[in-house]
Specification:
With 71 residues, this protein is mostly helical. The protein contains 2 helices and no strands. It has one domain (20-70). Helix 1 crosses helix 2. The N and C termini lie far apart (44 Å). It comes from Ferrovum myxofaciens. Pfam families: T4SS-DNA_transf.
């Protein structure tokens, strides 16, 4: 049927691998690409980095600080 099956096992050297840092373009998009990867690490659910009124401002500060460290 022409399908290709790819095994993903992070603990095995023989499995498929993905390194998001290899996707960073070394041109005018470099900073944007790095910031996007940092956002995915700090906010993996995509809920945003700004707190709602019920959340502590310290929580948002921690997210922003983590993003700055990564970029």
């Amino acid at each position: 049927m022409g399908q290709r099956v790819v095994k993903f096992d992070p603990t095995s050297a023989d499995s498929a691998r993905f390194n998001p840092l290899q996707e960073i373009r070394l041109d005018a998009n470099l900073i944007k690409d790095v910031q996007n990867i940092a956002t995915m690490i700090v906010d993996p659910d995509g809920k945003g980095l700004n707190p709602t009124p019920r959340e502590s401002p310290r929580f948002s500060h921690g997210e922003e600080s983590g993003k700055l460290v990564l970029t």
